[in-house]
Amino acid sequence: MIFYLAIAVTTFSAIALLMAPMLLRPSPEAQRILDVVSSSRPDRRTVTEKEQVQERVLSMARDFRSRLGLAENPKLKARLYAAGMREAKAADVFFAAQFLTPLVLAFAASFAPDNTMFFVFAAAAVGYIAPDFWLTSKTKKRNNRIRRSMPDAIDLLVICVDAGLGLDQALLRVGEELAISHPDINEEFTQVHLEQRAGKPRMEAWQSLAERTKIEEFTSFVSMLIQSERFGTPIIKALTRFADELRTKRRQHAEEAAAKTKIKIIFPLVICIFPCIFIVLLAPAILSIAAGVKGLSN
């Protein structure tokens, strides 16, 4: 009986092994999906030495900040967002810059032959303040780029809303159209869209946009959108009027800048041009007077 049972089990196993490729073969739909998602490219990516060094420096800065008990500053995070630095490691990079820049400059100033301590402390102070000034300058440049792109964005927004798109879809479409020429305003419009998809109310998302950028034109734009949403006024008329006001204000800023150049040009004129004119006009007279005085003395 045991012999016959062993023969039966062996026969069944052999038949199962022979039938397994046909029975366990995926369906044509599953096979097409497997062909799409399968790839011969290795899943792992080669990490360069530069990325390894950056990760070590950031981990050291992160550990040092945790040992000092310094939590993340919300104001610093808002400033980083306003400067366009939205990465998760942006705060660590800024802290590492504030920590390493004074050390590097102090080490370089230690080679000064005279007043070494003074130069070391001065270089350390400058190195600590330099990242903050750089972040402020980066924020101002980005705000200026956004301010210059506002008229084009509002004009495209008027066209999209007039064509029948909703305000949210129009903002997203305008950001996509301006992604190459004005990437900063595309980032802001995309951020508003992502916040709304995450469940944030529309008015709060717009208000966050105004608080994040802190640009006068954006603040007026958000106030206009909130009033139109709250009181039910036609959005196309409000956008058209706002676009006209924005163009007028842009023209006035250009006229103001042109008027200021008359005053600003005085300083290079006095410092650089007038001395040359004086030399050309007065040098021959001075040489003639010197020659006459020399002749009288002889």
TrEMBL record:
Q: Which residue spans traverse the membrane?
A: 6-24, 118-135, 265-293
Q: Where is the Type II secretion system protein GspF domain?
A: 154-282
The membrane topology noted for this protein in its Swiss-Prot or TrEMBL record is: Multi-pass membrane protein
Going by the UniProt record, its keywords in alphabetical order are: Cell membrane, Membrane, Transmembrane, Transmembrane helix
UniProt xrefs under InterPro entries: T2SS_GspF_dom (IPR018076)
* Main localization, broad class: membrane
A cellular component term, taken from the record's GO annotations: plasma membrane
Provide the protein's localization. Cell membrane
Protein name per Swiss-Prot or TrEMBL: Tight adherence protein C
Organism source for this protein? Granulicella rosea
